[in-house]
Amino acid sequence: MPTYTAPVKDMQFLLHEVLNATATGIPGYDELEPDFTAAILEEAGKLAEGVLAPLNAVGDTEGCRLENGVVYTPTGFKDAFAQIKEGGWNGLDLPEEFGGQNLPYVLATGVGELFVSSNMAFNMYQGLTHGAINAILAAGSDAQKTTYLPKMTSLEWTGTMNLTEPHCGTDLGLIRTKAEPQDDGSYKITGQKIFISAGDHDMSENVIHLVLAKAPGGGEGTKGISLFIVPKFIVKDDGSLGDRNGVSVGKIEEKMGIHGNATCVMNYDGATGYLVGDLHKGMRAMFVMMNEARLGVGLQGYAQAEIAYQNALAYAKDRLQGRAVTGTENPGGNADPLIVHPDIRRMLMDQKSFVEGARAFTLWGAHLIDRAHRLDDSQAEGLISLLTPVIKGFLTDKGFDMTIQAQQVYGGHGYIEEWGMSQYARDARIAMIYEGANGVQALDLVGRKLAAEGGKPAMAFFELIKGFLKENAENEALKDGYLEPLKAASKDLQTAMMFFMENGMKNPNAALAGSTDFMHMFGHVCLGYMWALMAKASDAALKAGASDATFHETKLKTGRYYMARQLPATGMHLARIQSGAEPVMALDAEAF
Ligand SMILES: Cc1cc2nc3c(=O)[nH]c(=O)nc-3n(C[C@H](O)[C@H](O)[C@H](O)COP(=O)(O)OP(=O)(O)OC[C@H]3O[C@@H](n4cnc5c(N)ncnc54)[C@H](O)[C@@H]3O)c2cc1C
Questions:
Q1: Which of 139, 473, 511, 525 could, after both became Cys, cross-link 504 (CB 3.0–4.6 A)?
Q2: What are the DSSP calls for 16-79, one per residue?
């Protein structure tokens, strides 16, 4: 049976010793005293360990079922959902006026990791609701906010996001779902959406669908798209539920993972919908909340790697196989545990150094979102906008790789469902695809984000690294394996950027052929920077005589591993980028 332990200590380290939360001056961060955040994270951890983790395999094996138009979730999901509701977990970072607690997003992100690691499919019912709430907050009218947000915050009602149609996913300009205006100001929505996460289920009284559709007069492509609220049950003026709307589940998709989440084909047959925001400006409304939604998916990538790593580590300590080449380490047994072998160590160190770096990167990203929203800080807004495709694309690509590494530690047992390792890899796989497939994240990074605001956010990022290197040039702990690799990797990244600037205009394919390499390169530099920040904090803690010396010494050693063994990947990515479009585009389509 796989197990899970909430990494509260590591999150506390990041919040208080790396991000120095209470000293940031961000409104609301003064509440984030260590005792307070520990209490919240520990409480969430208990729920994750005791309630959600035991249901993870149940959801995987049972899946969801559609019977007579009703979607049923796996055994135990309803009770667990009631506990999430009762605890008010969904409203942690949502506005108080709608029943939330208005706590910083950075704390909600920490809690989110615990819920996603322990049961990704289950957490998506809440996660999609959060996304829908953010879209209504960003673009909805006051009346819509009052009608929908309190019940969605409390999870009495859940939410969905309906973009994808059978013939279009990435290219949403092709959407065919129609919205016809009615005399009372509402719209009749007709069309089919596919792959809709948490599309329907038996855990809430109502489901509020946010649907992209085309209303007359908007023109071709994405410009003609508007956003609509389409409730499963019409909400009456007094807030009570009225008639069933013209929306139904066509089927539940059979899929590779996240079986506990109902991925639905949704049929809209003249369903009543209400316009959100301005007509024909639906894409803008939807994309306002994109940074958060994509950060949430990036988090799924490393959160699955975290639970896979925890179990691989336990297995490597327990499974006896072969002897250490340097001499027996388990004389009482007939073999040594797997963990004595350097190649097993390599896999565990890859996983550990990735997950801890990714956690730091994600919490730093969440803190930038708080800074942008709560301080109206345009520099933070620019930076998080630049980093969002990196968080989404890099952390999900690598997160998936790490679940495979964890599976590898188990040998053949990793391939057998009973051990649970296959589920982590299968569940993690989707995060590379939805919320904008990773190839498209890389295009967004290279094609739009690098040049945004005349390249200001990209320059600000390099200034951050340069400033850090300069400020810490004399720090002996950082000189030992941190500063030089970070400097070299950052230089590789800048060289790649120059290559795009010099060649991209002449031949756009030269930039696009290297976009995924660039996204990975950027991700490595970000994790290298995070490891340097963590090393600095741990070194300071050790010098101040911290009681948890082992934790900090381990941090310093793990970071050195990342700098020595992972960060040099930027050199390979740079070489690929500099080879340009030619090797990639050399074959005619017919020659494949
Ligand atoms: C389990 C699951 C849950 C989902 N949940 C939701 C949901 O809740 N709501 C929702 O609306 N959708 C949802 N989706 C849909 C998901 O967001 C899309 O599948 C995804 O955006 C990709 O679209 P597509 O499948 O049509 O692929 P396509 O757009 O056909 O893309 C195919 C491939 O081509 C690449 N590609 C496309 N265009 C370009 C380009 N211009 N340049 C380079 N490469 C390109 C893509 O990166 C991808 O690798 C879900 C999907 C799944 C499988």
A1: 511
A2: IIIS-GGGS--TTGGG--HHHHHHHHHHHHHHIIIIIHHHHHHHHHH--EEETTEEEPPTTHHH
